[in-house]
Write a structure and sequence with these properties.
By secondary structure, this protein is mainly α. Helix content is 70%, strand content 9%. Helix 9 packs across helix 10 (260-278).
């Protein structure tokens, strides 16, 4: 019975993670109108799943860090109450943000839940030095590094585009448009008459499809960019699965509920389902509310995110894919002067709330479970 509850709690957290995080790797594909929402989320699900499976071989440090060992006493880490409280507190926080359309960090939620459950279980035993060096510092530095990297990579690609002589193509819409024209009548009353009129419209990249013309090494620039864009989106999603899956599976391993292979597989499946069923609101925020982008700009942001998250995974640093992805988009948007600061500030505010909210919920769950244990 207890093992079943642990599995449900961790699966709930993994589902919430997929709902909030899966689309972040492919947001630029949808935002730049390179592909549809359905194609983007399908590609994200496949790439994330393979990243999750790869975590079996390459993410042992993250599994160890997010089991909570070293942060709180080992006796508490292995208790079912601790694992249930952490999974429940982090999962509820992330799923609520998904329904509200805020792209928050599951890593941040997990960190807050570990702290809240740890303080409720053993107030004087929390290892604050490890909390700062292993968790807080990477979470604070990663978005700042991502802003700088996103801006630098985009400027580098822009310089290369100009050197290759590639130009942008904008769409022009022409056709007949029905216009209502008022016709004065002898009795002083106006009569409405429909008149077909030829209209020509140009618009901004947000409305028109902006593409690239020219060739690079004999290859059509637009087709080459789209291919590289899809590959970079897949790389971000792969890196996200590699970085996030072991953090969640670590909870099962801490309680010795399952073998590591089964834990990774269950978490990977739940993450995929969460993305397929509940990612739409976060997708709209990431794709359209942070910055306008064309395919080239989206590709630059994706490449920055993939490089930073993959590097962090190999070194066992618990950075947030959300922070890195949003930071890269902001950096690119600052260079192009297209960043939408009002929604961006809302996203940043949700990041500030994530950790204390998850900590409070997990601490409350610890108290509730302790009361049940005493009765």
């Amino acid at each position: 019975m207890l093992t079943t509850l642990l599995l449900l709690a961790v699966s709930f957290l993994a589902y919430a993670n997929g709902a909030n995080d899966n689309f972040k790797g492919v947001a630029s594909l949808f935002g730049s109108r390179t592909c549809s929402y359905r194609a983007a989320i399908s590609w994200a699900t496949v790439a994330t799943f393979f990243g999750s499976l790869t975590a079996l071989f390459l993410a042992q440090t993250l599994i160890r860090n997010f089991s909570g060992k070293g942060l709180v006493p080992d006796a508490i880490v292995g208790s079912p109450q601790f694992v249930l409280a952490v999974a429940g507190g982090a999962g509820a926080t992330v799923l609520l943000a998904s329904f509200l359309g805020f792209p928050i960090s599951t890593t941040h939620g997990l960190t807050g839940a570990l702290v809240g459950a740890g303080l409720a279980s053993a107030p004087n035993a929390l290892n604050f030095s490890m909390l700062g060096s292993t968790f807080i510092v990477p979470l604070l530095l990663s978005p700042l590094l991502a802003v700088a990297t996103g801006a630098t990579v985009y400027l580098g690609f822009r310089f290369a585009r100009l050197r290759f002589g590639l130009t942008k193509e904008m769409c022009v819409c022409a056709g007949l448009e029905t216009v209502i024209v008022p016709i004065p009548q002898p009795d002083g009353v106006f009569a409405a008459q429909s008149t077909p009129t030829l209209s020509v419209t140009m618009d901004q990249p947000a409305t028109c499809a902006e593409r690239y013309s020219g060739t690079v090494f004999g290859i059509n620039a637009g087709c080459l960019l789209d291919s590289l864009h899809f590959m970079s989106a897949g790389a971000v999603s792969f890196a996200r699965g590699l970085n996030d899956t072991p953090k969640i599976a670590a909870l099962l391993l801490a309680a010795s509920a399952l073998d590591v292979r089964w834990g990774i597989l269950i978490v990977a499946t739940a993450i995929g389902l969460g993305g397929l069923l509940n990612a739409r609101r976060v997708a709209d925020t990431m794709s359209h509310k942070i910055t306008e982008m064309n395919p080239g700009q989206g590709f630059a942001a994706n490449l920055s995110t993939a490089a930073l998250v993959t590097t962090a995974s190999f070194h066992g640093l618990p950075v947030s894919t959300t922070h890195v992805s949003v930071g890269s988009l902001i950096g690119m948007g600052m260079v192009t002067r297209q960043t939408k600061w009002k929604p961006v500030l809302g996203v940043l505010a949700s990041w500030v709330v994530t950790l204390p909210c998850a900590a409070l919920l997990s601490a409350m769950l610890v108290r509730v479970l302790q009361l049940f244990q005493q009765t």
